[in-house]
Write a structure and sequence with these properties.
about 500 residues, mainly alpha, globular
Length: about 500
């Protein structure tokens, strides 16, 4: 707190942290579904004797269905709350995992993957929104990054599952890999009911008494809680001094109905339009730069580079998972200190270099038929390099940034649209990478991703202002041209929470 007393605003509130961690558990399940399919595809392809085209569909259909899940989740979370939306995501994951674990045919496996994909859409939309809404500005970057940490943990667990169960009989191994995710989904669906609802959602529904009780738990002292409550009430249009338990919300502040779609997409204010461009743009470039090709098809990349043994391919992908988790954790420690913008620009600069290097070394390795050992080694190193730079910035910042920039009234819908674009690009990359590699070589595909990363770097430089340390209620002002972040900060002289 810059002025006033009542707690240390830079200290992480333990209760808020616990809430964010539990919400992030849904991301671990999603990450597991993503990572485990990387190795499971090898065995699914063997048993069902499917083509590369069907393999691409199996890999990408999860994200295509997640597109619809994310759009549905936005409206759902506004109606029933953030907490119950996470319960729904868990139940959907449970059903999808059971169906994939059963998987008597390619069609049934695909159906299970589709159901799980809807759960992915729910999870990706709701986890960062919930985490952002219970967090204070000084620690929001860290807590809002936890869902991405969860995804990384899940991906690593998926890779380890591939390695552990790869020695089982063909018909049993991949089914256990895919079906075991049903167990944590069940426990999460039950355990999530112990979590409190988002105080911002409660205020949006006029339930001030409940919101005040929860805000006192997720804040470092009564003054911080009171300040945050006043800011939210002011943003919604409620009298700042109102202390009633239940209040009527102005129609202009309600986040339901067709009107909010029109206000956000058809007739946005200048600042809201900028927020929408930034939110959709960062989600577009997160996957347009090709990270899913590295995560999902790492075994294929290593095969092209010269690692032909399936066990060794899967072991090499475990290294990808460890690298991803290591740098996600580092990013969570830096994001509130360094800021979102610096991490993004550093991340994209590194990705341009490593993707270019991967393109060069993969081209040399392919042309030599995997005989150039140094090209093989450098291909693996640069693959890890791409994962490293992605996860130090672009990966976690994407979710933190979009969860915090939209005004409360539009937050669920705005994040839902961003996630839908994110999943569309993810599906596009995962369902076309093998075909693109066949057409222009694997090295050529990574040269293409390097070029897209250059465009992303330019976009981030001009369109994404720094949001570090700003309250969620300050964001719309931050995205108004002619107002610097310093001027916005001066408007909040009571303190930073």
């Amino acid at each position: 707190m810059e002025s006033g007393g009542g707690g240390n605003p830079t200290r992480i509130n333990k209760y808020a942290c616990a809430c964010a961690i539990v919400a992030s558990m849904i991301s671990i399940i999603f990450g597991y579904d993503t990572g485990v399919m990387s190795g499971a595809m090898i065995f699914v392809k063997k048993e069902f004797k499917i083509s590369d085209a069907k393999t691409e569909v199996l890999a990408g259909i999860l994200n295509l269905c997640a597109l619809f899940g994310s759009l549905t989740a936005g409206r759902t979370s506004d109606y029933i709350g953030r907490r119950y939306t996470i319960v729904i995501a868990s139940v959907i994951f449970l059903c999808g995992s059971v169906l994939m674990g059963y998987g008597p045919s390619y069609a049934v496996l695909l159906a299970g993957r589709c159901i799980a994909g809807v759960g992915v859409g729910f999870a990706l939309m709701i986890a960062p929104v919930y985490s952002a809404e219970v967090s204070a500005p000084s620690t929001r970057g860290f807590l809002s990054s936890l869902p991405e940490v969860g995804i990384s943990i899940g991906i690593l667990l998926g890779y380890l599952s591939n390695y552990i169960f790869s020695g089982l009989p063909l018909r049993l191994g991949w089914r256990i890999m895919l079906g075991i995710a049903a167990i944590p989904s069940l426990f999460l669906a039950i355990g999530i009911l112990k979590m409190p609802e988002s105080p911002r959602w409660l205020i949006m529904k006029g339930r001030l008494g409940e919101a005040k009780e929860i805000m006192s738990k997720v804040s470092n002292g009564p003054e911080e809680a009171e300040f945050r409550l006043r800011e939210i009430k002011k943003a919604i249009g409620i009298d700042e001094n109102c202390d009633d338990d239940i209040v009527k919300i102005p129609d202009s502040a309600k986040s339901q109905g067709e009107g909010i779609w029109k206000e956000l997409l058809l007739k946005p204010t200048k600042s809201l339009r900028w927020i929408l461009i930034a939110g959709v743009g960062i989600h577009f470039f997160e996957h347009a730069t090709g990270i899913e090709a590295v995560i999902l098809y790492s075994h294929k990349i290593f095969d092209k580079a010269g690692v032909h043994d399936h066990k060794h391919q899967i072991l090499a992908t475990v290294g990808v998972g460890i690298t991803k988790l290591t740098f996600i954790l580092l990013s969570t420690l830096l994001i509130d200190r360094v800021g979102r913008r610096k991490l993004l620009l550093t991340s994209l600069s590194g990705m341009v270099l490593t993707l270019t290097g991967l393109g060069i070394f993969m081209t040399l390795a392919e042309h030599s038929g995997g005989k150039l050992i140094w090209a093989l080694v450098l291909s693996i190193i640069t693959t890890y390099g791409v994962v490293m730079f992605f996860n130090i910035g672009l990966g976690p910042v994407t979710w933190v940034y979009t969860a915090e920039i939209f005004p409360l009234k539009y937050r669920a819908l705005g994040v839902g649209i961003g996630v839908a674009v994110n999943r569309l690009m993810n599906a596009t990359v995962s369902m076309t990478f093998l075909s693109i590699s066949s057409a222009i070589t694997t090295g050529g595909a990574f040269f293409m991703f390097a070029g897209i990363s250059v465009v992303a770097l330019i976009f981030f430089y001009f369109f994404l202002p720094e949001t570090k340390g700003k309250s969620l209620e300050e964001m719309e002002a931050l995205f108004t041209k002619g107002r610097s972040s310093k001027n916005v900060s001066k408007e909040v002289e009571i303190g930073k929470y």
